[in-house]
């Protein structure tokens, strides 16, 4: 694998030097391609397409990383090796349930996903102890439904850490913000039922001349800015 990656880096470097189109690329200019390639990969995964297609789409996403690394290296900032090193260090630092601080494997490992999530969240929080906002760093440009789900998840896990790891479990009592957000908790047996419900909400919003995407995003922003509590 090392030789293949090294050759890829060489090819991209040659393109940056000899291809006018590739040479003109910038971090900002690559954003649209990263988004497009990511959605193509998502579609390939969700439609269970053949492995050959999956490999090709992953390659397209990898190209974006290599291009960004090359552009950064040209200004002396970092290169692909530096990205890999940063990621390795982060994985060791965050996964304290698997690795000791020196990167060696621990002698035993957790038996539950809940314990792993708590360990990850505690390690992540320890990196920035000055942060008191559970939503710091949460990208507001995420699709509104993803944004809402991520915000709810961060809120509930933050409360669990505040309670010494004994807080509410995600499946039982998700954290809710002050006010009416999350007040009506309809129960859905399947994602199909949930999808129909969401589609109905969007249909009603359209009939009223409202933008459901913008409305949900604004609601999440409001409540992440005004504080959250465990529901009563």
From TrEMBL:
Q: Specify the NTP pyrophosphohydrolase MazG-like domain's residue ranges.
A: 26-99
Question: Which is a Pfam family this sequence falls into?
Answer: MazG
Tell me the superkingdom of the source. Bacteria
- The entry's protein name is NTP pyrophosphohydrolase MazG-like domain-containing protein
Which species is this UniProt entry from? Arthrobacter ginkgonis
